[in-house]
Specification:
Layout lengths: L16 H12 L2 H20 L3 E9 L6 H20 L1 H4 L1 E9 L4 H13 L4 E3 L7 H10 L4 E3 L14 E3 L4 H12 L8 E5 L4 H16 L4 E6 L5 H6 L8 E4 L3 H13 L6 E3 L7 H6 L7 E4 L8 H14 L5 H19 L5 H9 L4 E3 L2 E5 L5 E2 L3 E6 L2 E4 L2
Parallel strand pairs: 1-2, 1-3, 3-4, 4-5, 6-7, 6-8, 8-9, 9-10
Antiparallel strand pairs: 10-14, 11-12, 12-13, 14-15
Helix pairs in contact: 1-2, 3-13, 5-6, 7-8, 13-14
């Protein structure tokens, strides 16, 4: 297996002071005293073991290299922060987290290899992979091994169709995009929409489908589609009649979306741009520059969400990493708390029991909001609509 990064949170180590004390008593005292001391220490040690926190072993498969590293790295930061907090509270909560983080290299083959390795390593649950396109085969392996999986960032259609051990924390594009377009329709007409997609990417195809249905629901109409996998974006834009275009819908991931956004503005189009979930990273502001200004994107969360859980997460993340978290960090963080909450409620330590507890999640207080799991094992909570202003994502009321 080609593994770039592997990090573990150490388990709490039970002390062996009792055994040492007993041996010293035998060496230095009379037999009766030594026997009594040894028995007392042994009883104390047994009690300590009984009170030891239960360990949940979570495998983390995220993109730490390759095109999706811009998403995967911040997911891991959120996951590691959650584990750090939970382990600091383990004496009170009775739960401790052990993480094994593996790079999926932004590829389906990398994700499958990482899942195989973790399954053989006997984990209790897996969070990942980063990309929807990398999920089907990896999730199939986990389903066959009866290991619960949490998709922190996979927003394409059909993610949970693999089986009953597959759950999704991310809100799918089919939920977020139509809500976003309904909000955008209050600000601008949606007739004459131009849809830009990448037909080679599962996420972009799924996002594009959500944009089509959301556009229809909001009373808009589609003027043209541009597939950047088969068409030159500059040439395609040159063939559009500017007066007929009302809005651009851009569905690819950030590495492709950024040059598309720049090309739209360079071609002289000033119409609003609505992006898919690939826009939910500050990196697009760096890659696209001022061309991203005013662009809309829906999300499962924004740092400005004003709830106690969200504020606490933003503060903790900012103190830990020196910057505010993005959506993907929040989804990674929430995934860990969701898994641990289910482990606490599980009737036994079996994977099936953990799966059942995950499925029974209702009203869990998280940075994303009060989160419940649907009958299709999908997270349910409110989404937000955002707009890029001065390079920052701002919530649109």
């Amino acid at each position: 297996m080609s593994t770039v990064t592997r990090r573990r949170f150490a388990l709490a180590v039970l002390g062996l002071l009792a055994a040492t004390a007993a041996l010293l008593a035998v060496a230095c005292g009379d037999d009766d005293t030594a026997t009594a001391t040894a028995a007392a220490r042994a009883t104390s040690a047994a009690g300590s073991k009984a009170d030891a926190p239960r360990v949940i072993r979570i495998g983390v498969v995220q993109s730490l290299t390759g095109a999706a590293a811009v998403y995967g790295k911040t997911v891991v930061e959120g996951i590691e922060l959650a584990a750090k907090q939970l382990n600091a509270e383990s004496a009170a909560t009775g739960m401790q987290v052990e993480l094994t983080v593996v790079d999926d290299e932004s590829a389906a083959t990398g994700a499958a290899t990482a899942f195989e390795d973790l399954i053989h390593g006997d984990v209790d649950a897996i969070i990942g992979p980063t990309l929807s396109q990398a999920a089907p085969e990896a999730h199939r392996l986990a389903q066959e091994a009866s290991i619960p999986v949490l998709g922190a960032t996979t927003t394409a259609q059909g993610i949970t169709d693999v089986g009953d051990f597959v759950f999704r924390v991310a809100l799918p594009e089919s939920v977020v995009v139509p809500a976003t377009l309904a909000r955008v329709a209050k600000d601008t007409p949606l007739d004459g929409a131009v849809l830009v997609l990448d037909s080679t990417d599962a996420f972009s195809r799924s996002s594009a489908a959500a944009m089509r249905s959301g556009l229809t629901a909001a009373g808009g109409s589609l003027l043209a589609e541009i597939d950047v996998a088969t068409a030159d974006i500059d040439e395609a834009l040159g063939g559009l009649a500017a007066e007929q275009v009302e809005v651009f819908l851009v569905s690819p991931l950030v590495e492709t979306s950024a040059p598309v956004v720049r090309a739209i503005r360079t071609a002289g189009f000033e119409q609003p741009i609505v992006g898919g979930n690939g826009f939910n990273t500050p990196d697009i502001a760096q890659l696209a520059g001022t061309a991203i200004e005013g662009a809309y994107v829906g999300a499962a969360w924004n740092p400005a969400v004003d709830t106690e859980a969200s504020r606490a997460f933003v503060q903790a993340f900012s103190e830990e990493y020196g910057r505010a978290p993005d959506l993907f960090a929040a989804q990674g963080y929430t995934s860990v708390y969701l898994a641990v909450d289910a482990a606490r409620r599980a009737s036994t330590g079996t994977p099936a029991s953990l799966r059942d507890a995950l499925a029974a999640t209702r009203g869990l207080d998280t940075p994303l909001g009060n989160l419940s799991i649907s009958g299709r094992r999908e997270a349910q909570h409110a989404s937000v609509t955002q707009q890029y202003r001065n390079g920052q994502l701002v919530v649109v009321p």
